[in-house]
Specification:
single chain; 140 residues; alpha+beta; 7-stranded mixed beta sheet; NUDIX_hydrolase_dom; EC 3.6.1.55; 8-oxo-dGDP phosphatase activity; DNA repair
């Protein structure tokens, strides 16, 4: 039975499409978190008084121990999870340094944009991948 939820939590989640030499970083969620072993773009939930950019820089430092530079935003996508709405806020980014240490993810992969669709992504990410491919096709 569906539960009627009069006030829905809206959670803003900036995330990074990190490009490096034509490849894109995909990160696999830990087996111990929600949506275990699904693939995602690294990032996380916005904290109070943070801008999207501040959240992204903080989350990427926490998750990958690396600094990034934001190149440009892509359209936001909304995923209804019943009791909350996840607003994914994607940014195309590049690395400012190259050594990474994973603290939350199971593993990462660097993939060509055409190979992204081969992974088992969290649901909201399919729109991001579509928008990213549209961006690339206009850029080429
Ligand atoms: N970072 C990130 N999160 C995503 C993506 N797609 C997507 O649905 N999400 C969801 O957005 C939320 C991000 O929160 P988080 O990174 O702090 O992860 P978490 O496991 O602590 O969150 P949760 O336990 O509340 O689900 C998660 O529920 C995650 O599943 C994505 O591409 N990147």
């Amino acid at each position: 039975m569906d539960t009627y939820c009069p006030i829905k939590l809206v959670v803003r989640v900036p995330c990074a499409i990190i490009e490096h030499e034509g490849l894109v970083l995909a990160a696999q969620r830990s087996a111990h978190l929600s949506f275990p072993l699904k693939w995602e773009f690294p990032g996380g939930k916005q904290e109070k008084n943070e801008t999207d950019e501040q959240t992204l820089y903080r989350e990427i430092r926490e998750e990958l121990d690396v600094d990034i530079e934001i190149i440009r935003p892509l359209p936001e996508t909304v995923k209804d999870q019943g009791w909350r709405e996840i607003v994914l806020v994607p940014f195309i980014c590049r690395l400012k340094s190259f050594e990474m240490t994973l603290s939350e993810h199971e593993k990462i992969l660097w993939l060509g944009p055409e190979a992204l669709t081969e992974l088992d992504w969290t649901e909201g990410d399919w729109d991001i991948i579509r928008h990213y491919n549209e961006y690339l096709s206009v850029k080429r």
